[in-house]
Amino acid sequence: MSGHSKWHNIQGRKNAQDAKRGKIFQKISRELFMAAKQGGSDPDNNPSLRLVMDKARAANMPKDNIKRALDKAEGGDTTQYDEVQYEGYGPAGIGVLVEALTDNKNRTSSDVRVAITRHGGTMAGAGAVSYMFNRKGYFVIDREGLDVDEDQMLEAVLEAGAEDLQTSDDEFEIYTDPKDFAAVRDALESQGFHFTTSELTMVPENTVPIPEDKLETFQNMIDALEDNDDVQNVYTSAKWPDEDPAN
């Protein structure tokens, strides 16, 4: 659930994929429930819900799961989740930003603190880390089977109103101002493009290389945070080492 595909590509979280997928669906269900409770279950009249439903579809979440979350919101469930943000540091001053939806702030705060400090990090006060990041709209388009080169994609992206395009052998990554997210999404979809990721994310202004001797510990920190049921997103200012082509 972190904001950048590089995290997913670089580190080898290929085991227990079904369990990971189930946890992702559980977290998206919580977002769907909250969005529907706050603005209604019609995505055409609830932009926040439309955004979460886009995320659900990009994650290949079954329609039955989506329906259950919306039915729960419509059925009078009184569960209340609060949006909370935690900030901390990893090795070498790497910023760590954690977004959570929780029905028990004390529990979540304690769990996040343990996950960070147990892996050599430190907690930080509000604003100490968040200033390092900018909120952006973020889309990923898989290049496999796509008969579009980088120049053509750049033209389409700029015409749609996006800010930036980053290209790799496997995918196109598109960044946009948050206020333009919906317009860019709709414009690219109208041209027949399909997204493997479509979300609002936090992008670090600068990245910090992870010390080689701290790489495993830092990965374990991120895993511990993302494994927490209350944690929706984990963003870092880490510069990950290049993926080993042999893996």
Automatic annotation (TrEMBL):
GO terms, molecular function:
DNA binding
Its domain of life? Bacteria
Query: Any signal peptide, and if so, which residues?
Result: none
Domain TACO1/YebC-like second and third: start-end pairs: 81-237
Region Disordered, residue ranges? 1-22
Q: Which residues cross the membrane?
A: none
Where the record annotates domain TACO1/YebC-like N-terminal, the positions are 5-75
The UniProt record lists the keyword Thylakoid: no
Q: What is its main location?
A: cytoplasm
Gene3D superfamilies, sorted: 1.10.10.200, 3.30.70.980
Q: What are the subcellular locations of this protein?
A: Cytoplasm
Q: Which UniProt keywords apply?
A: Cytoplasm, DNA-binding, Transcription, Transcription regulation
Carries keyword Ubl conjugation?
no
The record ties this protein, via InterPro entries, to: Integrase-like_N (IPR017856), TACO1_YebC-like_2nd/3rd_dom (IPR048300), TACO1_YebC_N (IPR049083), Transcrip_reg_TACO1-like (IPR002876), Transcrip_reg_TACO1-like_dom3 (IPR026564), YebC-like (IPR029072)
HAMAP family, sorted: Transcrip_reg_TACO1
Spell out the PANTHER family in the cross-references. Answer: TRANSCRIPTIONAL REGULATORY PROTEIN YEBC-RELATED, TRANSLATIONAL ACTIVATOR OF CYTOCHROME C OXIDASE 1
Q: Cite the NCBIfam families for this sequence.
A: PRK00110.1, PRK12378.1, YebC/PmpR family DNA-binding transcriptional regulator
Which family does the entry's similarity section mention? Belongs to the TACO1 family.
This protein is called what? Answer: Probable transcriptional regulatory protein ACFQ5K_09285
